[in-house]
Amino acid sequence: MTIDSEQHDPTARDRVAGPGLDRFYGVIPAGGVGTRLWPLSRAAAPKFLHDLTGSGQTLIRATYDRLAPLAGDRMMVVTGEAHQDAVWAQLPDLDRTDMVLEPEPKDSAAAIGLAAAILYRRDPETIMGSFAADQVIGPVEVFQAAVVEAVATAATGRIVTIGITPTHPATGFGYIRQGQALDVAGAPNAKDVAAFVEKPSEDVAREYVDSGEYLWNAGMFVAPVSLLLQHLQANEPELHAGLTEIATAWGSARQDEVMARVWPTLKKTAIDYAVAEPAAAAGDVAVIPGHFTWDDVGDFAAIARLNPARDSSGITVIGETPRVYSSKASGVVVTDTQRVIALIGVEDIVVVDTPDALLVTTTEHAQSVKQAVESLKAHGDHDVL
User: Fold this and answer.
1) Average pLDDT rounded to a whole number, residues 350-362
2) pLDDT tens digits for range 201-233
3) CA dihedral (99, 115, 131, 5) positive or negative
4) Residue 12: band (very low, low, confident or very high) from pLDDT cuts 50, 70, 90
5) Are the C-beta atoms of residues 125 and 160 closer than 8 Å to each other?
6) Helix, strand or coil for residue 318?
7) Strand locations in 66-211, DSSP E?
8) Is the Cβ–Cβ distance between 8 and 65 less than 8 Å?
9) Fold of the domain built from segment(s) 10-295
10) Residue 16 falls in which region: left (phi positive, over 0), alpha (psi -120 to 50) or beta
11) SS3 250
C-alpha cells in the first residue's frame, strides 16, 4: 500500500487501495472534557482542541489527517454544539452536512449510533470507521495499514475493532482476547474476538500481556453501518428508535426540532456495552492487531511521557510563551501565561499555569486531578471548569 505524504489532501483517497475502501466513511467522535487534564482541558476547550505533543497540530486535526488518505472527503465529526466554531476552525475542509452537533453529551453509543444511522440513510452499504479525536498514534502508515485490514474484514460482514499491542500491564484499559485467525482477503492479521475484558488488576494485566493473547481496547471500530445498527436495535431498542427518528429528519426542516426533542431522552451508554460486547458474544466481531504506538493522553503524566525534556534541565515545557527556570528538578510545565515559573529541588513535578487556575501535582498523582475537578464542581466553581 502506498500512502501519499500529503495527508491533508482529500484526493489522496485514490492513492490507497484495499477491499471495501470505496464504501469507507471516517467518523470522528469528539467529545469528553478530559477532566484529568484540567485546567488545560475544560468544557469550552476540551483536550482534542489542544496541541499536547508539540507537533503544531491539535489532536483532532491530527486524527483527521490520519484518516484523510483513506476516506478522502467522506468524513464526519460528532461533537458538542459548544465546540462547533472551534472544530470548523480546525477542519475547514469538512463538509457542513458532516458536522453532527450534540445538544448535550450522551456517551459513545448515541454519538456513534447517530453517525451510523445518518450514513445508513445516505447509503446502507457504507462501512464506517470510528476513531476518537483525542488519541496520539504513530507511525501513521502502520495505523493506516491496520485500518485497511479492518475495512477489508468489515466488508465480509463483521464489526471490527483495532486492538493495540500492549507494551506494559496497564490497569486503566479494557482488553480484547484474540480468538482464531480468520481467512480474509486483504486482511492477513484478522482474528476472531473471543471476548472483551474489563479493566484488570495489575497481576491479571501482567498475565494478559505475558500470554500474548490480549490487546488493549482503544475504542476503534470499523463496521458496516447496517450491522452496527442491527446489534444496537437488538440490545438497546429505545436508543436505536430515537437515533433512527433523528436520522430520518436529518437534513430536513425538522432536523433541529427533532434533535432538540429526542436527544435529551436518549440513554447514556458506551458503544462497548450497547454493541461490541453482545456482538462479540454472537460471533460477529473481529480484531486487527495494531502494531503502532497509541496513547489516549489521559493525564499529565502522559504529556510528560509524550514530550520528553529537550535538554538537561529535566523539565518538559509546553506553551507559546514559557518562562521557566529549573534547578535539580524534573517534570512537566504547561503554561499559557507570561508568569515566571521557578522549580528548585523537586522531582516529577506537574505545573499547569493558566490565567485563572493553577495546578501543582506530581506525575504519580496525575490521575487524581479528576477528583479536584469533581470537588470544584460540587462547590459551584463552574467558572473554571
Assistant:
1) 91
2) 999 999 999 999 999 999 999 999 999 999 999
3) negative
4) very low
5) no
6) strand
7) 75-80, 99-102, 127-130, 136-138, 159-164, 175-181, 191-197
8) yes
9) Spore Coat Polysaccharide Biosynthesis Protein SpsA; Chain A (3.90.550)
10) beta
11) coil
- Could you say which DSSP state residue 44 is in? T
Locate 148 and state its grid cell: 485497511
> Is residue 128 within 8 Å of residue 160, measured between CB atoms?
no
CA distance 91 to 39: 24
306 near 297, Cβ under 8 Å?
A: yes
Structure-block grid coordinates of residue 339: 508568569
For 108, 110, 202, 235, the CA distances from 241, given in Å and listed in that order, are 16, 11, 40, 12
Are 303 and 366 contacting, i.e. CB atoms less than 8 angstroms apart? no
Question: How far from each other are the two terminal CA atoms of the chain, in whole angstroms?
Answer: 45
Enumerate the domain spans of the chain.
10-295, 308-384
Name the amino acid, one letter, at 72.
Answer: G
Q: CA 60 → CA 97, 306, 385, distances in Å?
A: 18, 17, 21
The C-alpha atoms of residue 384 and residue 43 are separated, in whole angstroms, by 9
d(CA 99, CA 202): 40
Q: Phi, psi at residue 183, to the nearest 5°?
A: -100, 90
Q: Rounded to two decimals, what is the model's pTM?
A: 0.88
